[in-house]
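Cont'd.
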Amino acid sequence: MSVMTEPAARTATAAMTKLLDGLRALTDAARRPDLGTRLAQVRNRVTDPRLRIVLTGQTGQGMSTLIEAIIGAPVNAAGRADTPDVVDTGAVPLIEVDAPHDLVAPGVVLIDTPGTSGMDSARASAVLSLLPGADAVLFVSDASQEYTEPEIAYLRQIQQLCPTVIGVITKIDLYPRWSDIQRANRKHLTSAGLDVPLLPLSATMSEIARRSNDTELAVESGVPQLVDFLRQRVVGDADLVLRHAVVNDIRFVSDHLAMALNAELDALNDPRNGAELVQRLQQARQAAEALRQRTANWQLVLGDGVTELSVDVEHDLRHRLRSVVREAEANIMTSDPAKRWDEFAAWINGRIAESVQDNFVLAHTRSRDLAAKVAARFAEEGQVAVPQLYLDYTGSILDPVQPLEPLETRKAGMVQRVLTSMRGSYGGVLMVGLMTSLAGLALVNPWSIGAGVLLGANTFWEDRKAQTARRQAEAKAAVARLMDDVIFQIGKESKYRLREAQRILRDHFTTTATEMLRSADDALRAAHEANQVHAEHRTGRIAEVHDCLSELRQLRVRAAAL
Amino acid sequence: MSTADLARRLIHDARSELPTDPRISAELAACERRLDEPLRVALAGTLKAGKSTLLNALVGEEIAPTDATECTQVVTWFSHSATPRVDLTHNGGQHTSLPVRRIDGRLRLDLGPVSADRVERLEVGWPSALLDQYTLIDTPGTSSNSSDVSARTLAFLAPDEGSCHADAIVYLTRSLHSNDVALLRTLYEQAGTGRGALGIVTVLSRADETSAGELDRGFVPVSGLLALRGRTLRQREFTTLVLLAALPDGILEAALVSPGRLVTTDLPISPSDRETLLTAFGMVGTRIALSLIRSGARDAPTLAAELVRYSGLDQLRETLRARFGGRHRQLKAHSALRTLRAVLLRHRSPHAVRTFRTVDRLLADNHCFTELQVLAGLPALPIPEPTRTALDHVLGGRGISPATRLGLPPDTIRSHTRAAALHAIRYWRDQLSDPLLDQPTARTYQAAIRSCEAIIAG
């Protein structure tokens, strides 16, 4: 992919890779492959900064046109095929576009999602599952009307999942009073307590401006402003996070390398002071060893935290599904469920998807909190980065759940009903007929026929009521079975995810502890070796170690300048 | 005896059967009055669907306030009156008359110190031929962020108790979002339980802005704004439009790129005129008006007529006339009966049991209502096009005379009509025998058969 890079961004990237390569050489010289792996990982992140920007909104708000406007011109100018890759992820047909031009940034992925307002709500929850991994979300709504109540509710959900949300107001070329709409939207956002920047723009105007090379019109269209905003806020923010990570890692690795070098230097400079130095290093070694132990404090915090979390998450899921069941049962009792079973199934599937989504969002935020807590425990030894956790992708996890079973919708045949009511009327005729026959009337007389009709009708209605009640009971049982299945599958999935989170956290901190132990060992060995060095080699070695240390210091200074 | 007469007699019966109480007799009088009043048509839809604009277009004057943002706050009744007046009923029961203020041809409805939630009813009386036929009810948009505003509309259209005050509903939607579907479903359910309005016509509103296509399932596309501009076209607007249309293509295209450019580009037309035009027509409206002028609308009356034709307003009026106009007696009778039933339920009396049953029977057994119900559901059925149109005709969607229903010339003699009706019955029975029919479609065919039988019996 021929990526055009912004000059400033390119130099920054180049500076970072240079620093990392320099440090890598020193690590290799010190024979520390463990620290080398760490550097290789961060170098990968620097050279491939992929950003995911998700576009979402109700249908017909001009989302696809907006994507074209953002990636528009340079794509065609460079003679590239501009057919987007369509990534089919089952329920949500996504259009994923690698935006490859200088307007945005290298390697930004724009994700166009289908409109959320269509007929089924399951779509919306599938789009939601894309958001936690996104760096920014563009919420698209056109200037023909202000935000509606469902839109504000949706915005609120979005903001919980992805902190960087931008409200885009499209089609300002069609609505002279778009600024009134923008004001109204701002008012709605303020009263909902949402902090979302609003950017009005017109894709059509930007398209015309591009064709006629009209820069003034391009500015009027608002698209360059959006791109600027994306570059400064989203790309800039991501860049800042990346630099922090790089600086942190450089500091961490150089600290570890310097530890051995400093120990060696001390031993070389002052061989008589050896015992004290060794004692200090032994203490550092013990501390690192203790951190690696299963009984370390952070291990306990992690273990307890995961247990607590899994109980909470399961309880939350059960609680949510229970309220769905209650709603469903109330719904079933309102009328004969057989008549509207399909509609009911769609509704309950939507509700379940929603609950599962909410549950996973909870698991995600709580796991992040836990990671921070463990890091705080661990961090008595210095700065420790928290590993990235993604737990809330629910795209296909409902797939193995059996769908709601069909309900016996056929009504009892007319023959069946007639027979039932005949049976009722037969009893009536016989009863009253027998009684009236005592009064000298025939068995079949107007009275007994009347009683027969009455009892027949009664049986008929009773039968109908019983049938409805039976179907309602069947419907409830079907819902209960479905819920059982959902809890079984989701519970399994959710436990697996939490395990995964636990494993990621444990591995991360254990690796860090091992690195610390290894550094302490190295330092001890270096100090020990320094004591054996001959007097004539001593000055030469001191100069070498000094060089190494000053190089490390320089690296650190240059890293801090980033 | 027609349903209306039956209803009148039942109200009379109820009056003698219920205990004498000024409250009851007032309620019964209101019931009876309803039989003589014009048909009540409510305009409903989500916010900014164009309800007030369409109302103005129907009346031909700007009497319902409109704005770029949410504007209608309370349910407002527009009825016929010899002189303009605005009456406000507080929820405490007292009445006030508000001053009738018109600014620039638009009626200003200023509630003054009264807050919207204290208003029981806002009624505008206006001299207009259309309001003589229909009482129009403008409702605030649903899905609003001010939930109390949406709640007022829902309380009006689908009240928790009692029945809806409107006889028919014109539902406006722009793209049939899920909340539209939910509200429409509620309305149909209300109609099904006999508590809601029977006639529901769904309109694709602001049709000039939307490319219809996917939604073209029997919805009537209407652009309220174009229709309103057509009916209230001013000479000054027309002159500005003609001057714009006379500009060379390149310059005009450049000016039409954005609203800002249209006003600020250096053109031999005063910017204030351009701004007025833009406020009135909007970008899309201006473009359409210009293309109409370029394709031959030479004078203001022609342009006005062309705008109205383009807007689809006539089609909507025709639908309203065909659906509700011919049946207005039955619709009103149904409303009156519904209200009567509510009154009888509230003041239970052992003497009125028979009347109550008759009311129930009339409400349940009336083919006219079945026809309206299936007509309202017709666009949603999976039926191929020629059959759908034929059903629309036979169920009286285009007019209720036997000849219109059967698609015969108006002067067809009776024996021919009967023969055609018999033929039609056979055809629809044949359709009904398909074992794979879903229930709503089968119900529609049955209603069609019943309509043909009514023609033969009639």
